[in-house]
Amino acid sequence: IALPIIDFRARLPEPVLGGQFEMQVNTMAVGRTDGQDTQRAFALTKWEYQGLTGLGQQFTLTAQARGDVYHSDDNLLTSNILYRGNSGWETRASATAALDVKWPFVGQIFGGTQVLTPRFQVVATPQTRNIEIPNEDSRAIDLEDSNLFALNRFAGYDRIEDGARFTYGLEWQFTRPNLSVNTIIGQSYRLTSEPVIFPDGTGLTNRTSDIVGRTQVRFGDRVRFTHRYRLDKDSLAIRRNEIDAMLGDRRTYAEAGYLRLNRDIGTGFEDLRDREELRVGGRVQINDNWSVFGSGVFDLTSTREDPSTTSDGFEPLLTRLGIAYSDDCLEIGITWRRDYVDNGDAERGNTFLFRIALRNLGF
What digits encode the pLDDT tens for the residues 128-177? Predict the structure, then answer.
């Protein structure tokens, strides 16, 4: 039973010491009929200053402070000790300072324009109380291009990455008529040798992280290809391999995605299991107002990837089919969805969704 999350953010309109100042307050409460109950509230303040040196380096200075209050019951019902935290009231305070520097170089090549941008970041956070705090929303951690330069690489708010580290990477952009390429690759190194709470297989356990990257290629407005990956720092084995392709425009398109996670991780972390998955979807615009759409997600995981799985290597997880009407004033859609597996309290079966939206009211 999850109460609505309250998340309030405010940004001061006037600069403070030349930088942008913002505040955040967040609450969360989860109750279980047979499991751990957790409530959380925290307040955060953040100051960020962006500047430009005479040599063209773009830099960002960040200072952040946060305070948390937690309360939990029935913690022993959570089997994984890294998730349960201490029962009763717990508090936590943390502070983070960071410097992020980019140095873009612009030039002409192959009939287009390229931008080569080395990037370097230093982040420091004093040792923080983590094990004592319940973990509800920071379990599925995985190093990837989207969080490589994040101040906290944990997903969610319940875990805070402490210690000092520097992160380095290289981004390359190339544009010419009807073609654009954007690629990034990077890695991080932790300056302290203190033990971390990242599970083995997430790419962040050792002082030197795995190598992550992303490449996106666009041909005009109708073809897009994206590849994301994570390479083992020692063997260069592919730990994450994700490919997405799209053909079409906003009205009529087809898309497909493939994901394989080979984390080489223990079976005790249910949120970090190895996985192989296929996603397909599409939409066809029949005329100016009517369209049909559909999608499917299929589990390709076999016992080779995950010995605990019951899949035979091809198992549908979700299919969806619908029809929609849209004009300048109104949107109507009917969708049939079928779930093939139970997911928590959501049972497998058929779901029908009717959607109506009134557009441009008051304009």
Answer: 999 999 999 998 888 999 999 999 999 899 999 999 999 999 999 999 99
pLDDT of residue 302: 78
Q: What is the three-state SS of 75-106? A: HHHCCCHHHHCCCEEEEEEEEEEEEEEECCEE
Contact 358, 330 (CB under 8 A): yes
Tokens encoding 30: 């989860």
Residue that is written with structure tokens 């058929």 in the block = 350
Q: How far apart are CA 233 and CA 230, in angstroms?
A: 9
pLDDT at 155: 87
Closest to 92 in 3D by CA, of 47, 139, 41: 41
CB 74 within 8 Å of CB 36:
yes
Using CA atoms in the order 137, 142, 148, 150, what is the torsion angle rounded to 10 degrees?
Answer: 10
**Nearest CA among 80, 91, 60 for reference residue 139:** 80
Q: Which amino acid is at 16?
A: V
Residues with Cβ within 8 Å of residue 357, at least 6 apart in sequence:
330, 331, 332
- Provide the terminal-to-terminal Cα distance of the chain, rounded to the nearest Å: 39
- φ/ψ bin of 111: left (φ > 0), alpha (ψ from -120 to 50), beta (otherwise): left
